[in-house]
């Protein structure tokens, strides 16, 4: 006879989560490092009580904003290479919909996130309840249906026993390297409190370890054949290299074959910046070293990348008309993009098997020499734009240089959206795998501070440096207080260019007038002078505003010794970006305009599109 235990659905859920384990560096640890929770009437009585019962095994963390707590959970998963994760819960209504942006971010970036929003009453007796969204034509709809397009798996739990198959499916999605992404379990608030006799076996400890599929024999042979014929081979390292923990195998592969490597935003730090074959960033925000090779490459091995437009220069970058792409990817959807030879499999296993099949092959010496010479040339150019300066309004690049010199490549640096990702991708000299943490798949302003908190929780012994602009800071800064409350110290460098400087530059670059981006160009009664340092202090952080690059380096040295989150503010120039490197990006320019500047940019745009057609 099956042994059972009577629990509420919420108690069964939390007990199940606390029993899911993995092994990292030979040590067994929980898959779920905790649950972020902002309680409301839709989850406090059911799930809140259940979380209290397991608080020792499954810690509950209180946040200040639902989107932010989900960002922290996502960053934690990213920083642990998708090996561990967190859950987040909110009430039904605005608390739930606040998390939809974060769900989309996790979906785009293929990162595990368990969303547990409260939902309406399954029995519908008290309908409409507070915060309930009603559809005139569908009685089954709630606000949580917003999560459907941004969830890898969505389920609404309307009976307590439904949690059993739902959680089994949840774990397979969250831990599958190909399907990985957000899971939403919408928890009807009456069902959270309903009891059921659950089988005790449901709560047995379960071990989840990474699946590493090896490539198909036929696909492997085709890829090896293409690489053996290459005169100008190139590797693009994407985030899949990091998540597969394949950096050593990547280094072995390219060193044996003499093949240069370039990196996407997600793949940056796959190899240390100092590696002679690492050409660093590729694409729109790429280095001259990487992009020159990309324009000529005849065989491109794309490892663990979804080939986003910033990587490919909107498909104008790879101009060799005889080029062949090989897509080494765990996800078939990505492996076969743009007529690539698919090589479906784990990045680490795939690189090992490619290396075995390419024994005695080496790229022509002239190609490898060109790569190494291009890298040296780029390093000289980068050193110029990041060097110390006494200007009153430094560039983003000069601030990056100061952070690099002071914090070093050992620090974990984190950023997202705006102008910083472009400058960081080109200029930051990453060290260990995962030390460069960019959210540029969804390019979500407001990720940075919450993401820094999540990264610090994953890497408590690292110095975590958050690079953020004033625009992102104003969007979402509340988790400064959370970081102080939790004793999780992060270092925040706030570059104040008084507006949305990146989009202002794009506006100007497409012929538009300066309008509604910088504060001075927006409609307002008062032009604000915001004291960001004072604001950060009010949230519990140590903070200061500096007036020069030299002062910033001194402040960063002090920050390393501080015992809690530190915010350093510096005014920067909104108009300067690094001209060296980079490539075209397809941003459609109006075909008709009253502005002569727009008409001139449209002509240039039409010429650029021709280049893309020829190159793709």
Automatic annotation (TrEMBL):
<protein>
    <submittedName>
        <fullName>3D-(3,5/4)-trihydroxycyclohexane-1,2-dione acylhydrolase (Decyclizing)</fullName>
        <ecNumber>3.7.1.22</ecNumber>
    </submittedName>
</protein>
<keyword id="KW-0378">Hydrolase</keyword>
């Amino acid at each position: 006879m099956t042994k059972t235990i009577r629990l509420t659905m919420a108690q069964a859920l939390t007990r199940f989560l606390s029993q899911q384990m993995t092994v990292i560096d030979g040590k067994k640890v929980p898959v779920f490092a905790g649950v972020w929770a902002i309680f409301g009437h839709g989850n406090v009585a059911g799930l809140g009580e259940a979380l209290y019962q397991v608080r020792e095994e499954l810690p509950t963390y209180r946040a200040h904003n639902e989107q932010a707590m989900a960002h922290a959970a996502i960053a934690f998963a990213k920083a642990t290479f998708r090996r561990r994760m967190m859950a987040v819960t909110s009430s039904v209504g605005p608390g739930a919909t606040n998390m939809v942006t974060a769900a989309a971010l996790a979906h785009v970036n293929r990162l595990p996130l368990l969303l547990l929003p409260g939902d309406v009453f399954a029995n519908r007796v008290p309908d409409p309840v507070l915060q309930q969204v009603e559809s005139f034509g569908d009685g089954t709809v709630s606000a949580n249906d917003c999560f459907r397009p941004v969830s890898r798996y969505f389920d609404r739990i309307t009976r307590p026993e439904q949690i059993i198959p739902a959680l089994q499916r949840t774990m397979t999605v969250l831990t599958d390297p190909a399907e990985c992404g957000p899971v939403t379990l919408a928890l009807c608030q009456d069902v959270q409190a309903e009891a059921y006799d659950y089988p005790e076996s449901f709560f047995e400890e379960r071990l989840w370890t990474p699946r590493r599929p090896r490539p198909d024999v036929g696909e492997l042979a085709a890829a090896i054949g293409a690489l053996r014929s290459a005169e100008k081979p190139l590797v693009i390292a994407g985030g899949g290299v990091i998540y597969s923990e394949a950096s050593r195998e990547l280094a072995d592969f390219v060193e044996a074959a003499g093949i240069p490597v370039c990196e996407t935003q997600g793949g940056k730090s796959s190899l240390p910046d100092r590696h002679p074959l690492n050409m660093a960033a590729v694409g729109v925000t790429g280095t001259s070293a990487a992009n020159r090779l990309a324009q000529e490459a005849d065989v491109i091995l794309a490892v663990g990348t979804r080939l986003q437009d910033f990587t490919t220069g909107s498909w104008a970058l790879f101009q060799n008309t005889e080029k062949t792409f090989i897509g080494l990817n765990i996800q078939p959807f990505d492996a076969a993009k743009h007529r690539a030879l698919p090589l479906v499999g784990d990045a680490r296993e795939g690189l090992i098997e490619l290396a075995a099949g390419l024994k005695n092959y080496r790229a022509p010496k002239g190609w490898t020499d060109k790569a190494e010479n291009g890298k040296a040339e780029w390093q000289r150019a980068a050193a110029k734009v990041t060097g110390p300066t006494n200007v009153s309004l430094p560039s983003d690049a000069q601030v990056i240089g100061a952070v690099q010199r002071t914090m070093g490549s050992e620090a974990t640096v984190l950023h997202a959206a705006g102008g910083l990702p472009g400058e960081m991708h080109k200029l930051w000299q990453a060290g260990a795998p995962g030390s460069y943490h960019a959210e540029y798949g969804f390019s979500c302003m407001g990720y940075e501070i919450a993401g820094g908190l999540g990264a610090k929780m994953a890497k408590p012994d690292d110095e975590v440096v958050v690079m953020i602009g004033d625009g992102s800071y104003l969007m979402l800064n509340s988790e400064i207080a959370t970081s102080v409350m939790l004793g999780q110290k992060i270092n925040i460098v706030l570059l104040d260019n008084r507006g949305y400087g990146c989009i202002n530059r794009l506006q100007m670059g497409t012929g538009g007038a300066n309008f509604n981006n910088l504060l001075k160009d927006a409609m307002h009664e008062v032009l604000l002078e915001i004291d960001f340092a004072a604001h950060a202090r009010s949230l519990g952080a140590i903070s200061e505003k500096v007036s020069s690059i030299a002062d910033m380096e001194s402040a960063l040295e002090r920050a390393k010794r501080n015992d809690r989150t530190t915010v350093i503010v510096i005014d920067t120039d909104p108009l300067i970006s690094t001209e060296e490197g980079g490539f075209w990006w397809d941003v459609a320019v109006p075909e008709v305009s009253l502005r002569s500047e727009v008409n001139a940019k449209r002509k240039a745009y039409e010429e650029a599109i021709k280049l893309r057609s020829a190159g793709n």
